Amino acid sequence: MQALTSTTSNINMEQISNETIKTIYQRRAVRKYKATLVEPSLIEQIIDAGRMAPSAINKQPWKFYVVSNKETISTFSKEIFRAAFIDTIKSGVAHVIKTAKDLMHFSNRSFHLHVDDVVFHGAPLVIFISSSKQNEWAELDVGMCAQNMMLAAKSMGIDSCPVGLAKFAAHAKSYSKLNVPATHRINLAVIFGYGNETPEIHVRIKNNVVYID
């Protein structure tokens, strides 16, 4: 059993010629967006890319809820943040300390930039994704679905960011607007838009592979 001993290293984009791999490396979690709306035809392409993700026994457990109205997004953002905060407080002091950074999951700079939308960062498009509560593999399927969507979006010049706090949407007063079936739960949301920032690529950990044979 041999572990890869390389340490962290930066990715040299100039050495990448494969367009799919290049898109994977260029995708970033963007939290600052222009006001420009994403064209409906592109939204359909993004969702279709999600539909092409693999799923356990090909059940394709996902449902998509598209929100592009600025006021609706802002309302959901405030209500979800409040629900997440209350849930954290109820979990106890130790849990509050442990999850404070995760709850924010954005820098102080981003918080001040989007005081009216602390969850969705002012993005012009939010797509919630739900799956069946009875499907034990659905959350894994939804993760692959969301990644497909983000990579497809990036290939079209559209930035994105997954938002785990969206799982608290069921506790939002506006939740009924999504028309989520009672048999489903929201797993996460992905925000999309034309980015107004270009985050630097993070150094990737390279010593996390074990070759067995």
Features:
213 residues; alpha+beta; NADH Oxidase; four-stranded antiparallel beta sheet; two-stranded antiparallel sheet; 36% helix; globular; disordered N terminus
Describe this structure in words.
The chain is α+β, with helices and mostly antiparallel strands and 213 residues long. The chain has a single domain, classed as 3-Layer(aba) Sandwich (NADH Oxidase). The protein is 36% helix and 15% strand. It is built from six helices and six strands. Strands 2-3-5-4 form a four-stranded antiparallel β-sheet. It is globular.
Protein topology:
Blueprint (H helix, E strand, L loop, with lengths): L1 E2 L15 H8 L13 H12 L11 E5 L2 H21 L2 H12 L3 H6 L11 E8 L5 H18 L3 E5 L20 E10 L16 E2 L2
Antiparallel strand pairs: 1-6, 2-3, 3-5, 4-5
Q: What top-tier CATH class fits best?
A: Alpha Beta
**Can you list the strand order of the major beta sheet?**
2-3-5-4
The fold-level CATH name is: NADH Oxidase
Tally the structural domains. 1
Number of helical elements: 6
**Terminal-residue CA separation:** 7 Å
Mean pLDDT: 87
Short recap of the structure:
This protein is an alpha+beta fold and 213 residues long. It has helices at residues 19-26, 40-51, 70-90, 93-104, 108-113, 138-155; strands at residues 2-3, 63-67, 125-132, 159-163, 184-193, 210-211.
